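Sample entry copied in:
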Amino acid sequence: MSFSLLYKTHEEPVATGALYDLSVDRAAAAFCPDKRRADYFLEVLSHPLQSVENIIYRQQILTDLREFPGLFADLQLHFTRYDKIKSDWRELRQSASAGPSQSPEALLARTFSSLKITAMFPSTIVSFYSSLLETLKKYDIKSEGLCSMRGYCEEMLTNNSLAEVVRVAELFQYRTLEDYAYGVEIGFDATLRLVEAELCDITLREGKQNAFMRLFSRKKEGDGSAEINLDLVDDADDDVEDYSGEDAAYALSCALTRIDAALTQITEGIYENFYGISRELLFYEAALQYCEFASERGLTLTTPEPLPAHFDTIELQNVRDLILAAEGKRADEIVPNSITLDSSREGIIVRGKNNTGKTVFLRSVGIAQLFMQAGLPVCAERARMSLRGGIFSHFSSAEEDFRSSDAAGRFDGEVRQVAEIIDSLQPYSLILLNETFQTTAYSEGTEAIADILDILPRTGAKFIFVTHLLGLFERVDPNRVKLLATDEGYRINAV
C-alpha cells in the first residue's frame, strides 16, 4: 500500500483558477514567506477536493499537528531523511556500476559491490519503521491517516517475510566476496553455453586463503542443468575437474545479479509506500503557518462541516476576509458578515456603492469555499458548506477608473470571458462575479448580466454576484435570488 497525507482515497480534483482573483497568493505570501512552500500550498488549493471523506482526512491530520507542536517537526525530520534514501541509493549504485567491465573477475567484483549497496537498504527501511513508530506512539494521535501509518509500522516490524529479506541482505552487507563458499545451479543451452545461474547455497568460510577460483561440477543432468560449487581453494587440489577462473567468475556474477535484482525490486516496492510524504508535509507546514498567522491577527478559525454536493448549501457565520488580515489589519478592524445560501435560491446578488465592502464580502466567501475544500479551517465562527464541482470567478477591475473610450472593448472582452466560464461549468459549481459588466457606458450591461444569471441555474451552478448596477434588482425574482445590499459600515444586509 502507498500512503498519502493528502488523500485517503485517490481522486482527480477539478482545477480552479479562482485563487488569483481571490488574492489567495497574496495571503500565502504573507503567512508563508518561503516561496517553495507557498507555491506547493497554492498548488494543492488550486485542486479543490471532491470527496467529503478526503476533506475530513486532512482536517483530522491538521488537528493532530496543531494539538501536538512537536509532531510536525518529528515527521518532517523522518520523512525528509526517508526521501533522501532513494537518491543516496541511486548515487551509490551508479558509482558501483561505473566503468567498463574489463573481465569476468571485474564484473563479479562490481556485481558484489552493487549487491552490498542494495543490501544496505532493507535494514535502513526497517530502522525507519522503528523510529517512525516510536514517534507516532509518543503522541496521542487520533487522525485516521497517522494512525494507519502507526499500524502499518507495527505490522511490518513483525512481518516474517520482511525479516527474511533483511536476513538475506545482511549476508552481503557486512561481508566480502571471499568470505563465502557458493553453490550455484547453472543452466546450459544445446551448445553448452551458460544461459542462467542461480545461487542455491552460501556458506561462511572459517578463514580466507590466497588462492584462485575454481568451479567444481557434478555430472551434467539430462535437463541441461548442473549444480556447481564455487570456492576459494588451494591450488594443490588436483582431484577435481577444473574450469577457468573466468567461467567461475561469470557464473557467480550471474547468480549474484539475480539476487541483487530481487532485493532491489522488493526494496523499491516497500520503499514506495512512504516515498513523497516529505513534499506533502509542505502543505501542512504552510497550513500551520496560516493558523498561527490567523491567531496572531485575532481571527477566529473554525473547522467547517463539509457536506455532499447535493446539499447545495453555504452557511457562514461572521466570516472575515483573510486578505485584509494579510494587509496588516487585525480582526477587530475587519467587519464580519454572514451568509446563508441553500437549494431554495439560485444565487445571491449584492449591490452597493464602490468601497462599501462588496468585493471583500465576495472574496471572503470564495476563500472560505476554497479552504474548506482543501481541508483547512476558515476565518469564521461557524461554517457548513457543501462541495462544489468547480469554483469559478470573474473579477472586473470595477474599483478602478477607466476611460469611456475603452468601455466597448472591455465589455466585449468580459462577454467572452464569462461565456468561457459558462462553457466550463460543472453541476453544483460556484461562480463568483465581481462587477462583471459594470461599465455605465452601456445600458446593455444590466440586460446582459440578467440574461446570464437566468442561464446559470440551468447548469446546476450557484452564483454570487456583486455589482453597482442598481437596475438589476428589478430584473430578478426575489423568490429565486437572494438580494442583499452593503451599507456605509461594510455590513451586508437583506434588501
